[in-house]
Structure formats: structure tokens, C-alpha cells
Amino acid sequence: MSVRVHPELRNQLMQFGIGDWNACYHCGTCTAMCPLSEEGFLFPRKKIRLMQMGLKNEIESSVEPWLCYYCGDCTSTCPRDANPGELMMSLRRYLTSIYDWTGLSKKFYTSEVWEIGSILLIAVLVVIAFLIGLPAMGYSFTTELTSQGGVKINSFAPIHIIEAFDWAMAIVVGGLLISNILRMYYKIIWKHGHTKVTFWVHVREFWRLVFNFSVQPKFGKCDDKRYWFSHWFLMSGYTIMFIVVVVFLPWFQTEKILPPWHLQRALGYYATFGLLFGLLVAITGRMRRKDVKFYFSHVSDWLFLVMLTLTVITGILIHIFRIYGMPYATYIFYIIHMAVLVPMILIEVPFSKWSHLAYRPFAVYFQHLKTHAVPRKTKINSIN
Amino acid sequence: MEEPRIGVYVCWCGTNISKMVDVEAVTNEVKALPNVTIAKNYKYMCSDPGQDLIIKDIKLHNLNRVVVAACSPRIHELTFRTACEKAGINPYLFEMANVREQDSWVHTDRTEATNKAIDLVVAAIRRVRYHEPLQKRFVNVNPATLIIGGGISGLTAALEIANAGKQVYLVEKSDQLGGQVKKFDLTFPHLSSAQQMIRPIVQRVDNHPNISVFLETEIREVTGYIGNFKTAISVNGGDPVELEFGNIIAAVGLKPFNPEVISEYNYKEFPDVITSFEFEEKLLAGRILTVYGKEPRNVAIIHCVGSRNKKYHEYCSRVCCMAALKYVHQVRAALPSANIFEIYADMRAYGKGHEEFYALTTHRQIMFLMYDQQKKLPVINQADRSDNCNMIIEMDELLSGQSIEVPVDMVILMVNMEAQENVKQVVRAIGVSLCGNQFFIEKHPKLDPVATTTGGVYIIGTCQGPKDIPDSVAQARAAAARILGAIAQGSVPIEVTTASVNELLCCGCQTCIGVCPYKAISYDENNKVSIVNEILCKGCGTCGSACPAGAIISKHFTDLQILSEIEGVMSMS
Ligand SMILES: Cc1cc2nc3c(=O)[nH]c(=O)nc-3n(C[C@H](O)[C@H](O)[C@H](O)COP(=O)(O)OP(=O)(O)OC[C@H]3O[C@@H](n4cnc5c(N)ncnc54)[C@H](O)[C@@H]3O)c2cc1C
Ligand code: SF4
Ligand code: SF4
Ligand code: SF4
Ligand code: SF4
Ligand code: SF4
Q: Which residues line ligand 4 (CB under 6 A)?
């Protein structure tokens, strides 16, 4: 069955990244160099070809872009400077926008005005909620300190309201992400007319999802072990923080100052260090531009780093000001913290860079589903 | 005949010969043979001291024959003949025995190789005894030149020769000068105007006092030989004009391949499937429109149409890849938002600036699609109404491994460059040969690409093989230089070792006339015998072996010489 080429698709794709992929003359060096490319799932050359030819369906049903962890080996060996590594990155951005049914992802990735504008809008809404919303609802904060000399933070940010908001946000973001993953599943596995995957295979391969999410073995295989470690540290810190803040907020945001070795504070410190370390590596890398993987920075790469850094620093400051009994400073930084955190989660997780957290492990899972796909029995087959 | 006094010289060729042949033994063996005055061996006979050895001996020992046992005569026969001449004896009183290519290099047993060397040297000694002095011959060169074909190569050669003050007769079949280039808009790789390039050249030729242009004229028959050719042409059906000239240049160019025979492309069926030549017409007219009068939104360019395919032509046309890229730039300039598809089999960008031109083109929003020339050609089909285009190309794309559909409104076929169909007439008239692809054959593919095996006849431009303008022009100037050189000399050397007919033996059967590849023999009706024109004769010897009466003597290859040589080979074993 022949497929239609779409010349205009390339121009669309160009908006998602940096680089000139026309330069590629298909020598295949990149695929030979790639430590993650494997039989049946060859990349990046083949993906460059699909891109050049505008084979939309073939690109959308690809798992390969998610199997690339951007070590940059391909880019540094390409004889034509075609920048295959950045191409894979751009394809990930494109795919994120394709999985997203709201169309917002595409807007965020291709328009800086949209992305930064939305972040600012949400930030302003958060500030308004704190300065006008809460007082209007009858909440008023106190500058009195607790018996331990700490700030009465729950008087400023009532725990049940913040918790309810957290849950609401988690449900919206989770719902969007799940629906996008289902669309990803549909495009990669379901839409394939000729093959199907049995239910049993779905169950049997499920462990891969969990394993890849928590250990990220592919990253370790592709890269310098230092990056695997810093990335893993960052990812685990982020996940812990996310779970603690959404699921266990009343346990986490206490007025009582617990001893430093208490699990509440220990987990918080671990997550903070993990995030800080990972961020430091990424930011210095992008600034030094020595490693190929950090050579090109899309707006979305920087935004993500800056916002996460701001969140972490304001979080640390809140913690310090609260313990040392500085109520105004605590409250001001609480507002700033939320004004950065909320847009970051609402925009980055379902629509932008953060979504890779979910797509990557799912892609490995889908890859193995694909490997075990069997030909679908069609009517024509049974007649013959 | 004076008593032969032969000097024999055995060369070591460093270790090339001496390693497998005992040169000392060979020298000693032949020393005592009758007529051998002196026999020596030396490390490098071809070196200056080696040649001096011969020259001194000739003078000192009053030698009148020389034999050198060394490499192939193709390499050094001329060297030793010249040495003989310097010492004052006729160069044809020399014979060479090849004991390297035919002996030391191909054998592994030293004793047997040495014996073989002795046989070969003895044969040369026996033969050289019967050598006769031959005199070098020259013919005068008529300073006028005939050029057939008024394309860029013919025009360039004409100007080059005419500017040197010599007469040129330029014969052009069509009604205008300029050839293919006259029909082009731009040229690759600089995208400069073809018209601005060719027009002044045509003008200069038209106005040149030393060039006579004959339009709508063809050459039917040429008689004569190098330096002295003749033809009669009739201009506009009028009385024949007789032309005389000393050299000929063939520059009859190429013609486009007719893609009708490739069913996949439906060339006649779909009016918007056009050849590169037809596309040039559109470009010259200034508008790229489909037959419906609309600007095409999708343009495909298919490479290698009729080229590099055993079914049509196996050779590569060399210019169509770059011409296709030229069209890419032109389509992009005229239709900024059109989709352009380059459907190619291999991208050949061998020339100066060509790879850069290719790299530049990749940035012009083109979709390059590769097909396998040997497996499956793209197929052009009618599109459905829902396809939103005029035609659909179906093809197996090689680099992605996908079968794809390409929407198109106009398809440009990069057709092969074929030889002219009337080329046989020209070939017969000027006495050159054609290769399997109907291109003119040059004298030597590397070392003599513009001359032919017929003296005074040169081939330039695309009639010799597909090439671009710079290569055509380079050949034109090269041929002009060769001809001007001959004119400056005033005469050219011709073959010495020709055939001649012994009229007493000839029975007039005319067998020889039929076999001579150079049309050198004619029949003398009065005396009822054949006669060889010794200017045309190349000394190939064919007639000599064909003559049933043994009436033909080939100089330097007489029966006596050959039989003595054979006796010599046999005598020692
Ligand atoms: C589609 C296409 C595009 C090209 N574009 C370029 C380009 O951009 N740049 C470039 O460098 N090269 C280009 N070329 C190559 C270029 O056309 C040739 O190199 C050039 O035309 C060769 O010139 P020529 O004089 O050998 O032959 P021609 O141009 O073919 O001229 C031959 C002349 O001889 C005449 N003739 C033929 N038979 C006889 C006869 N029997 N008696 C008398 N006259 C006769 C013909 O009428 C013609 O006038 C292109 C070729 C093609 C096919
Ligand atoms: S991206 Fe570079 S290395 Fe890879 S196939 Fe293309 S030219 Fe070769
Ligand atoms: S960046 Fe690394 S993992 Fe990604 S395609 Fe290139 S070589 Fe493979
Ligand atoms: S020059 Fe290019 S298009 Fe022409 S025959 Fe050769 S490979 Fe084919
Ligand atoms: S083949 Fe011999 S005999 Fe016959 S015509 Fe020629 S020269 Fe005379
Ligand atoms: S020797 Fe050859 S070229 Fe000369 S007349 Fe005989 S056949 Fe012709």
C-alpha cells in the first residue's frame, strides 16, 4: 500500500526545532553510531527520511523518537552536520503536540508568545487568588508565631483549600496526560491495521513501563553515566516532591517544626538536593554548550529549567523563613512559589517538556507491544 | 646489397630482464652468428649512455644494421630508431626483440626464458638482414578547415581557427547557428544566461571574414586525405560548390531521447509530462504553465529518463542531474510556493562547482526522492478528482523503503542525450567509426580524445559523448590547436610502411579494395589493376594477406623479412 507524501509537513516540523535536516544524505553513520538504535527500531536516519518526505502517519506511529535519550553521538559523527540528535528532539516536541488533542501543546511549542503569555496569565491568576480570593472568602492571615517560633503558614494558605486545589490540578493534569497517552497508544499500536497485540502481551510486558520509569536503563546505556545519575536524581526528587505535595500535603505543610531527621523533612531535603543537582548539571551544560546534547536550546528547554529552579529556590526560602519565624517573607515567597509552580505544572506536564516523563516509559512499553504484535486476521485472509 | 654488419644489444632493464634471462649467455650465443659484427649487453639500453653505446659502435665498427633486445617496441622503438638516425643510418635498418613483456615478465624458469630470449634475438637478426631503408614522407596541408555542426563546440573551434587567420567552412544542418545552447534559458552551475553567452558567439561567427557559414546544408561525401580533402555542397538546392580543406572537425552534437517508449511515463498521454527540452522552451517563453493555463502547484523532475538502463541506454548522460537542479532553482524562483520533487536515481555532481550547486539546491525546499533505476521506474498515473492534483506518481522510494504516491501537476523528464540519427551519413563521409552507443570513437580514450584514427579528422563536443558546455568548449579549442599546429608546419608526416601493388602479378580481382578499412585502394580501369594510394594507406597489412595472387607488397613486412624471422625463431631449437 502506498502512502502519500506531504511536502508541507516538513515546514511544520521545522517550527519544532533547530537545524537543517535537508543536509542529510543518508549515509547511515548516525544509525550505526547510535547506542540505542536496534533491529526493528532503527533511528535516527530513518526518521530523518520520514520527516524529509512528510510521511505523517509513519511519523505519528513512531516510538523511536522516545527511545532516543539525546546522547549526541549521532550529531557529533554526522559528516554533513545534519544534526540528527536535535532532529529526534524536535520530533519528540512534534509528537507531544500530536498526542495532545487540545491543540495547546502545538501553540506552546511553536509560539513563544503563547507559551510565556499563558504562564504569565496563570501566575497572575494565582497572585490574585492569594491577594483577593482568599481574603474575599473570609480568610485572613496572622503574623503571630507558633510556640516553637515558626510561622503559622496554614493561616495564610489554608491547608484544606490548597489541598483541594492540588487535587483538582492533579486530576486535570492527570486526565489530560492519560488521554494523551491513550491517543499515543492509538497512534502507535491500535491504528496499525495489519497487526494486533493480545491482551496477555499487554499484561506480560507491563513491568517494562514500571522498570523504565523508575530506573531509566536506556539513559544509562546511551550516555555518560554522570548524566544518567544526575537525570535520575532529578527525576526521583521531582516525583517524590510531586507525590508529597499532592497526596500528602497535610502531612507535609505543617506549622509544627519537626526535627531534621523526621521523614517529612528528610524526604523534602532529598528531593531538593536531587532537583538542585540535576538542575545545576543541566543549566551549566546548556550554558557551556560543550556537550552536543546541550548545544541547541529551544525556548521550551530554558523555560522548563528556569521555572523549576525558581520553584526549588522559593521552596527552600519558604522553608527557611517559616522555621526562623519571618511571616511576611514566608507569605510573599509562598505566593511566588505558587505563581511559578502552578503554571509550570499546568503547562509543562501535559503540554510541553515535562510530558516526556510519561511518554518515554510508555514508548518502551509500546515498543515491546509492537515487537509481539501478530498479524490481524482480516476477512480477506479468511476467504483465501 | 652490401654485406650486413649487425650490432646486437641485450638490455638488462635493471633486473626486469636480467633476473629471468641470462643476458651474458644470450650475448655470447649470438656473437658468433653470421653477419653479427658485435654483441653487447648493458644495464639500461634506453638511457643516454645506452644510446651512445649504439651510436659509437655504428661509427666505430661501421655497422649498417642494429638489433636491440629489450622491452616492447611500443615503448622504445622510436628511441632506438632515432639513435640510428643520429649515427647516420636509416632508422628502418633497425629491429627490436621483445625479451621483457614477452619473456622475462611472463616466465618463471630462467633456463627456458634464456633459451627463448636467444630464439627471439636470432629471429630479429635474421629479419634485420633483409630490412631496406625507407624514407619519411610528408604531405602538404591545405590551410582551410571544414567544421560540421554549428553548436557551441563547432562555433568555438571555428572562431579559434579563424582568429588565427585561417579559412573555416562551417556547415550547419538547421537554419540557425547555436545548437542546443540556443534553446536554453539559463546554464548550470552559475545560473547565467545561455542566450547572453551564445548570441555574441554566433554574431562573431556570422561576421567573421575568415568563416563561411553554410546553413541548411549537409555533407554527403568527402574525398581526399589528410591535408587535402574535398567536398561538394549544394546551398539551398543551388549549384554544388566545391570546397577544399586540409582538416575536418565533426561537431554534430546530440539529440534528445524520445521518452514515448517508456510506458511508465505516459509521455504522449499526459500533456503535462514534458521533456527537459520542452521545459527549456517554457522557460525561454517566460512562463511555467500547465496545458490548462494554470501555474502548477506540484512539479516533479524525473532523472535518468532513457539513461542508465539496459532497456534504453546504459550510459549516463552526465549533464541532466545538474540541469535538473538548474530547473529546481528556476521553478522555485517562478513559483515560490510550489512543491518540487526531485525524483532521482543517483545524484551525479562531478564537475567544478557542481557539488556546491547541489548543496545549495538542497536548501531550496525540495523533496528529494530516490528510485531504483534497475528495479522499478516511477509510474505516472491520472489523479482522481479527490486527489487535488493533476497526476499521481507512484514509486518505491529507496531511502525510506516506502511505496509512495507523489501528487503532481507537471512532470519534467530529464531525457537522455542521444547521438544524432543522421550520424551514419557523416561517419561514412569522413571515415570515422561509431561506438556501441552511436558516439564517435576517438583515437585514444585518454591520451588522444579529440583525434580519430583517420588523419586530419577531429571530433568535438557531444557527438563524441555526453558532456557539458565547458568540456565541449575545451575539446573545441584542443582540436583547433591541433589543426593550427599542422597548418603552421605546412605539412604532416604520413605512414611509411605502406602497401603497394606489383602490377605484373595483380590479376584485377579487387579483393583488396573490399578489405581495406581506409578506402586506400582503387581500381585502375585502363591497366586493369588495383593501385594503393600511399597517402591514405595506414600499412595495416590486411590487403597483403587477402590478395590471392600475392601481388601486394607491404613495406617493412615483406615475405622475405617475415619468413626469415620465422626461420630465426625455429633455428636454435
Ligand atoms: C536538457 C539539457 C540541459 C543542459 N543544460 C546545460 C547547462 O546548463 N550547462 C552546460 O554546461 N551544459 C548543459 N547541457 C549540455 C549542452 O547542451 C551541451 O554540452 C552542448 O550543447 C554541446 O554542444 P555541441 O556543440 O557539442 O552540440 P549541439 O549543441 O547539439 O550542436 C550540434 C549542432 O550540429 C548540428 N548538426 C547536427 N547534425 C548535423 C549534420 N549532419 N550536419 C551539419 N550540422 C549538423 C545541429 O543542428 C546543431 O546545431 C544541457 C544539455 C541538456 C540535454
Ligand atoms: S544524519 Fe548525518 S550521519 Fe545520519 S544519515 Fe544523515 S548524513 Fe548520515
Ligand atoms: S542522540 Fe544518541 S540516542 Fe539519540 S539518536 Fe543520536 S545517538 Fe541515538
Ligand atoms: S547525469 Fe544524472 S540524470 Fe543524467 S543520466 Fe546521469 S545520473 Fe541520470
Ligand atoms: S587482391 Fe591482389 S590481385 Fe586482386 S586486385 Fe588486389 S592486388 Fe590485384
Ligand atoms: S595495407 Fe591496409 S591500409 Fe594499406 S592499402 Fe592495404 S588494407 Fe589498405
A: B 303-304, 307-308, 316-318, 320-321, 345-346, 348, 414
CATH topology of domain A9-99: Fumarate Reductase Iron-sulfur Protein; Chain B, domain 2 (1.10.1060)
Residue of B19, B47, B559 whose CA lies nearest to B68: B47
Q: Cα(B255)–Cα(B147) distance, rounded to whole angstroms?
A: 18
Residue holding cell 513491568? A207
Distances (CA, A) of A164 to A169, A171, A250, B12, B467: 9, 11, 11, 105, 79
Going from the C-alpha of B118 to that of each of A365, B9, B17, B73, the distances in angstroms are 84, 12, 13, 17
Q: Any chain A CB within 8 A of the CB of B132?
A: no
Name the pTM for this structure: 0.79
Each domain of chain B, given as residue ranges in start order, spans: 6-134, 145-253+420-492, 257-416, 499-555
Chain A residues inside the 8 Å CB shell of B332: none
Measured between beta carbons, which residues in chain A are less than 8 angstroms from residue B405?
2-5
All residues of chain B having their beta carbon less than 8 Å from the beta carbon of residue A4 are 404-405, 407
CA–CA separation, A128 and B362 (whole Å): 52
Give the mutation target among A21, A29, A31, A37 for probing the ligand 3 site: most ligand atoms within 8 A of CB.
Answer: A37
CATH T-level assignment (fold) for domain B6-134:
Rossmann fold (3.40.50)
Q: Distance (Å, rounded) from C-alpha B45 to C-alpha A301?
A: 79
- The nearest CA of chain B is from the CA of A94 a distance in Å of 20
B520 lines ligand 6 (CB under 6 A): yes
Predicted-complex ipTM score: 0.76
Spell out the per-residue pLDDT of chain B, length 573, in tens.
689 999 999 999 999 999 999 999 999 999 999 999 999 999 999 999 999 999 999 999 999 999 999 999 988 999 999 999 999 999 999 999 999 999 999 999 999 999 999 999 999 999 999 999 999 889 999 999 999 999 999 999 999 999 999 999 999 999 999 999 999 999 999 999 999 999 999 999 999 999 999 999 999 889 888 999 999 998 777 788 999 999 999 999 989 999 999 999 999 999 999 999 999 999 999 999 999 999 999 999 999 999 999 999 999 999 999 999 999 999 999 999 999 999 999 999 999 999 999 989 988 889 999 999 989 999 999 999 888 899 999 999 999 999 999 999 999 999 999 988 888 888 888 988 888 888 999 988 888 899 998 889 999 999 999 999 999 999 999 999 999 999 999 999 888 999 999 999 999 999 999 999 888 999 999 999 999 998 888 888 999 999 999 999 999 999 899 999 999 999 876
Q: Which CATH number fits domain B499-555: 3.30.420.40, 3.30.70.20, 2.60.40.1820, 3.30.43.10?
A: 3.30.70.20
